[in-house]
Design a protein that fits this description.
With about 60 residues, this protein is of the alpha+beta class. It contains 3 helices and 2 strands. The protein has one domain. Strands 1-2 form a two-stranded parallel sheet.
């Protein structure tokens, strides 16, 4: 999580997060992203509705 400031800045500029893999891994990624987003006062569902968070999990 040492790069969370840089990730938040990219998200604010419209970056997309693409998660592809197993369900357990995707759940872990989602948890970490939720923590990283708290200072921005948004969540994964907000990013999903903006088209900035996409999952392809199995």
């Amino acid at each position: 999580m040492e790069d969370q400031v840089a990730v938040r800045q990219m998200i604010e500029k419209g970056a997309q997060i693409l998660v592809c893999g197993g369900r357990d891994m995707a759940a872990g990624v989602r948890q970490v992203i939720e923590v990283m987003l708290k200072p921005l006062r948004i969540d994964v569902e907000t990013l999903r509705s903006r088209g900035q968070y996409l999952e392809d999990v199995y």
